[in-house]
Design brief:
The protein is mainly alpha-helical and 314 residues long. Helices cover 53% and strands 10% of the residues. The protein has helices at 2-5, 11-31, 40-45, 47-57, 61-76, 85-105, 111-116, 121-134, 137-152, 154-162, 167-177, 210-214, 248-265, 300-308, and strands at residues 38-39, 187-188, 193-195, 198-200, 205-206, 266-271, 280-282, 287-289, 293-298. Helix 2 (11-31) crosses helix 4 (47-57). The chain starts with a helix and ends in a 6-residue tail after the last helix.
């Protein structure tokens, strides 16, 4: 099933969707108001990956917010398992199955139509369900937490402003330093194994800490330092090997475009509250940044365009 979906997330496939990501990112940024407090999570980091997936899957814009809402409920109900988990699974599964059925009746040249050629509706909905969840909440957190890291490390923010060549490295360092997901998916030991005097029996369920692996002092030089120029940065935020995140190329492209768009449009981006007042929600598999209040100042040329074209004002 993974091999069937993989062509939709190759470097070439993501390159083809970059114009759409740039357009969506630009539209969202244009709506951000200056001279007042703006929440970059609610107004930018949340809608961007949702609208991008809407483009890829052919989800109407007015349905994207509801899909995103149920995806968040699903992620929050996983660890520990909450009563909200089952209804979120049912809603997302039904929605994904309906998408598959629609593409069988009205095919297009998108990913879901290609999947329906080889998979039944249950298999297609399972794959779409996974991509909808993984492609929204985690990517939102990559953008939100990445921006908060830049704002709390002004030397690194200045570095990125001055040299966009480090943008790809910057996103990898954000993923290493504070990954969207704290842990891997559930694994099951197929044989007994001992790790540092702890015996894991056959059949035991194991969750590995991505956060700890990414801060391993035996693997990374000064692992607790946030450094956009870090080289040899083979983090595990996207997993590894055959289990590496299918949408890694897409997530990185969205983050790179998001940061570039914000920095291109605004001369100054600064926190509107003390760092200690940023709001977080620990949902087990991830520690979510729920708000990122900032104040923005548009670049001079952009301010001139807005003054001469009142329709651009927000």
């Amino acid at each position: 099933m993974r091999k069937l979906a993989a062509p939709g997330f190759t470097t070439g496939a993501v390159a083809a969707v970059r114009p759409a990501i740039e357009r969506i990112s630009g539209e969202l940024v244009q709506r951000l108001r200056t001279g007042t407090e703006v929440d970059l999570v609610a107004d930018f980091a949340v809608p961007l990956p949702t609208l991008v997936l809407g483009e890829i899957f052919g989800i109407p814009a007015d349905e994207c917010a509801q899909v995103r809402s149920w995806s968040d409920v699903f992620a929050a109900g996983l660890l520990p398992i909450k009563d909200t988990l089952r209804p979120s699974i049912m809603w997302l599964n039904d929605y994904a199955k309906n998408l598959a059925r629609q593409r069988r009746v009205d095919p297009d040249d998108g990913l879901i139509t290609r999947l329906t050629a080889d998979l039944d509706d249950d298999e297609v909905s399972s794959m779409v369900f996974l991509l909808l969840v993984a492609g929204q909440t985690a990517t939102t957190q990559l953008i939100a937490k990445g921006m908060s890291l830049l704002l709390t490390h002004p030397d690194q923010l200045d570095r990125l402003r001055g040299d966009r060549a480090v943008l790809s490295n910057a996103v990898d360092e954000m993923l290493r330093y504070d990954p969207p997901l704290r842990v891997t998916a559930f694994r099951m030991a197929v044989a007994p194994i001992e790790i540092e005097s702890v015996t894991i029996a056959a059949g035991d369920v194991v969750m590995c800490s991505v956060t700890e692996a990414n801060r391993d002092g035996e693997r990374f030089v000064e692992p607790d330092r946030f450094d956009l120029g870090r080289q040899d940065n083979q983090h595990l935020a996207f997993g590894h090997g055959i289990h590496r995140c299918l949408g890694a190329n897409l997530a990185k492209a969205e983050a790179e475009i998001a940061f570039a768009t914000l920095l291109d449009r605004f001369d100054r981006i600064e926190l509107a509250v003390p760092v200690a007042e940023l709001k977080w929600d620990d949902v087990g598999i991830m520690n979510q940044l729920t708000t990122l209040p900032v104040r923005l100042q548009r670049k001079h040329a952009d301010r001139e365009r807005t003054r001469t074209n009142p329709s651009r004002r927000r």
